[in-house]
């Protein structure tokens, strides 16, 4: 079967974004001691400041084991303390404390920046009688700690100052009031998620424009609450460490190559897709009129009516069970993970899906297994049109992150924690590969069903393809705009970092990269705010390249992906087990697919003829309808806890109720809280 282009989309990351990262939805607080040394190299140039005195340990296998065990235990404790505070703050839980978050972050960074530990690990690597397993862990300790050694008091003070400023901005955002004017002229308070949903789905242009203008107002709000000072401080910090700027520092630590190479790769994709973008905008204008290219109208023009027609087939209350059955059919498990899921939107909650790990999994030196603990959030508003589809995709995405990290089997939690030197692109490839399934006709035929159990009709899928395929490039360009904006932002002279200039640069990038103002204004993208997710979005773009290349591989070798029981084991073995260790993102993709990473598969799929795509998708749909969706019990080898802020909704471990009963409890809670979701 011809590979169907997976949806090009704004990622939900993972990390606190996404996400973002958002992953949306993952923390990369990278602080390196040497400008020109790759974060992938374990034998980095030592710091030039006096380091700790030489270890007095006897260099034996037993000593290395003790050192590694003590390091892993201490790191795990400090990591969990920070992540618990992070979750409480981002979820706006009762008693959350920004000062506690700042302190726990500084404690974790101080541990990772301890020169004595780095020196001891290096000394042990020189010993001849450490095992290969120990050597791999010691190299990872050296690689990770080398990202966190701060050589000067100036850099240390700048780091602490910029984090305090960032947390103050977050506190301001927690109290920010947002809303829109409805069709009756009434002001309605709304979260960013609701505003974005209404831009896509409201049939009232005045409402869509009001929502868009509110998102646009986020730029001046951020700048008035300290964003320019944060940009300046981040740059001072990076330059104190010998980098060109903060963006250069972040990409070097996360991906192992600098800003120059990063944008050489992005420039190639930008150039290859520019003609497709102009053609798409011209087609949109020709077929739907000049107003369709206005920022608040484009998304609705492409999917407004269709969103409403598709909506009944994506009831959010069924999403956890759909996710579990889909992953289970591909033999994806979680190796004993405890996962906390906060899936519904509410005031004060962080405005993007993400997945973090208070406990990164690892294998102890005695062979025992420490399973992961995951905190996972999305932003469902179950009775809003289109929110079920969006939230389900987020669930597949963040569930993909959780599956990836749960299956990293190495001798230290450093391999499975989301900070530097973990590749953003590697992490996002896994989640984006799995959420791409949601737009495969084969997947929809099995899992997109209304509350009565009726399968989504082929006519809707065909219409979706015909109406959207030629416009998918617009979402790609929206992804590209974020790294180009941040590049420009961090290259601005410090005295030019004013509200007017920052907002002007955002507008200029939108015009250049997207062909006009964006329906999701750049200053409303949450990734740009937090240190852990800023200068991060290029990772989504590289990941999307890898997703298309990986899909192409599976279609070529297996013929299908949906419910293929070979997919999970292949991902676990080839992509997931190594974590942030060797061989690294680029080599991992090449080893599986047989080719170096490139944008070729992505661009090829975007340019596929619509008729050819429709025909291949119809064949897959018809085959899947005959096969039906998987039935029976679902065992993902994890404990699942549904929460809503401080409230615990359901726990799969309680009374051994298991996955499906916990999902049923969640569904009942949704029906009670949002009565419109109850089937007629």
Descriptive notes:
This protein is an alpha/beta fold and 680 residues long. Helix content is 54%, strand content 6%. It has 25 helices and nine strands. The protein has helices at residues 61-90, 98-112, 115-125, 132-145, 153-174, 192-201, 205-216, 218-224, 227-240, 246-255, 259-288, 295-310, 319-329, 387-406, 424-435, 441-447, 458-468, 472-490, 499-514, 538-557, 567-576, 585-593, 600-606, 610-627, 658-673, and strands at 179-181, 187-189, 337-344, 354-359, 362-363, 369-370, 373-380, 638-644, 647-651. Strands 4-7-3-8-9 form a five-stranded mixed sheet. Strands 1-2 form a two-stranded antiparallel ribbon. A two-stranded antiparallel sheet has the order 5-6. Strand 5 (362-363) and strand 6 form a beta hairpin. Helix 5 (153-174) runs antiparallel to helix 9 (227-240), helix 11 crosses helix 18 (472-490) and helix 12 (295-310) runs antiparallel to helix 17 (458-468). The model is unreliable at 1-58 (pLDDT under 50).
Strand order of the largest sheet: 4-7-3-8-9
Output the structural class.
Answer: alpha/beta
Annotation, overall tally of beta strands: 9
Radius of gyration: 24 Å
| Number of helices in the DSSP assignment | 25
Query: Approximately how much helix is present in the residues?
Result: 40-55%
Give structural attributes:
single chain; 680 residues; alpha/beta; five-stranded mixed β-sheet; two-stranded antiparallel ribbon; 25 helices; 54% helix
Set out the fold topology.
Elements lengths: L60 H30 L7 H15 L2 H11 L6 H14 L7 H22 L4 E3 L5 E3 L2 H10 L3 H12 L1 H7 L2 H14 L5 H10 L3 H30 L6 H16 L8 H11 L7 E8 L9 E6 L2 E2 L5 E2 L2 E8 L6 H20 L17 H12 L5 H7 L10 H11 L3 H19 L8 H16 L23 H20 L9 H10 L8 H9 L6 H7 L3 H18 L10 E7 L2 E5 L6 H16 L7
Parallel strand pairs: 3-7, 3-8
Antiparallel strand pairs: 1-2, 4-7, 5-6, 8-9
């Amino acid at each position: 079967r011809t590979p169907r282009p997976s949806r090009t989309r704004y990622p939900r990351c993972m990390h606190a974004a996404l996400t973002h990262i958002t992953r949306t939805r993952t923390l990369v607080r990278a602080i390196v001691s040497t400008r020109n040394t790759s974060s992938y190299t374990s034998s980095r140039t030592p710091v030039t400041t006096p380091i700790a005195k030489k270890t007095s340990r006897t260099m034996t296998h037993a000593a290395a084991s003790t050192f590694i065990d003590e390091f892993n235990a201490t790191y795990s404790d400090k990591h969990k303390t920070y992540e618990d505070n992070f979750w409480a703050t981002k979820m706006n839980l009762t008693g959350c404390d920004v000062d506690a978050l700042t302190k726990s972050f500084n404690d974790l960074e101080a541990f990772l920046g301890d020169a004595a530990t780095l020196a001891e690990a290096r000394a042990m690597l020189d010993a001849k009688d450490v095992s290969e397993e120990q050597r791999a862990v010691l190299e990872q300790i050296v690689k990770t700690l080398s990202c966190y050694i701060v050589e000067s008091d100036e850099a240390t003070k700048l780091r602490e100052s910029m984090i305090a400023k960032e947390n103050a901005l977050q506190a301001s955002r927690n109290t920010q009031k947002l809303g829109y004017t409805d069709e009756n002229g009434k002001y309605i308070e709304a979260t960013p998620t609701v505003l974005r949903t209404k831009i896509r789905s409201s049939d009232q242009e005045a409402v869509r424009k009001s929502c868009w203008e509110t998102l646009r107002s986020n730029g001046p709000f951020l700048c008035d609450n300290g964003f320019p000072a944060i940009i300046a401080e981040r740059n001072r910090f990076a330059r104190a460490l010998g980098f060109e700027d903060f963006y250069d520092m972040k990409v070097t630590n996360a991906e192992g190559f600098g800003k120059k190479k990063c944008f050489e790769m992005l420039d190639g994709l930008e150039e290859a897709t520019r003609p497709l973008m102009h053609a798409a905008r011209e087609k949109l204008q020709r077929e739907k009129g000049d107003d369709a290219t206005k920022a608040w109208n484009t998304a609705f023009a492409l999917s407004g009516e269709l969103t409403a027609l598709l909506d009944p087939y994506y009831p959010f209350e069924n999403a956890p069970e759909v996710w579990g059955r889909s992953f289970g059919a591909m033999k994806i498990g979680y190796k004993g993970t405890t996962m906390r899921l906060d899936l519904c939107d509410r005031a004060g909650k962080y405005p993007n899906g993400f997945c973090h790990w208070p406990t990164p999994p690892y294998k102890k030196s005695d062979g025992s297994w420490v399973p992961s603990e995951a905190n996972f959030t999305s932003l469902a508003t179950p009775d809003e049109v289109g929110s079920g589809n969006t939230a389900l995709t987020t669930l597949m995405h963040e569930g993909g992150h959780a599956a990836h990290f749960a299956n990293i089997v190495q001798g230290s939690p450093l391999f499975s924690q989301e900070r530097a030197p973990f590749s953003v692109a590697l992490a996002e490839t896994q989640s984006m590969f799995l959420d791409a399934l949601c737009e495969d006709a084969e997947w929809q035929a099995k899992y997109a069903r209304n509350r009565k159990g009726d399968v989504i009709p082929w006519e809707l899928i065909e219409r979706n393809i015909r109406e959207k395929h030629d416009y998918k490039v617009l979402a790609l360009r929206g992804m590209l705009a974020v790294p180009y904006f941040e590049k420009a932002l961090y290259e601005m002279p410090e005295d030019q970092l004013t509200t007017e200039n920052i907002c002007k640069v955002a507008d200029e990038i939108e015009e250049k990269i997207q062909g006009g103002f964006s329906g999701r204004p750049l200053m409303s993208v949450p990734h740009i705010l937090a240190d852990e997710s800023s200068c991060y979005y290029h990772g989504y773009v590289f990941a999307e390249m890898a997703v298309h290349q990986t899909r192409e591989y599976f279609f070529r070798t297996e013929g299908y992906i949906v419910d293929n029981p070979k997919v999970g084991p292949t991902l676990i073995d080839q992509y997931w087990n190594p974590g942030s260790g060797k061989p690294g993102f680029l080599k991992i993709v090449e080893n599986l697919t047989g080719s170096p990473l490139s944008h070729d598969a992505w661009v090829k799929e975007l340019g596929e003829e619509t008729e050819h795509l429709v025909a291949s998708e119809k064949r897959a749909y018809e085959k899947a309808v005959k096969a039906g969706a998987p039935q029976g019990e679902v065992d993902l080898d994890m404990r699942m806890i549904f929460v809503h802020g401080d409230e615990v909704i359901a726990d799969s471990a309680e009374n051994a109720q298991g996955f499906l009963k916990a999902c049923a409890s969640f569904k009942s809670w949704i029906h009670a809280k949002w009565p419109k979701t109850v089937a007629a």
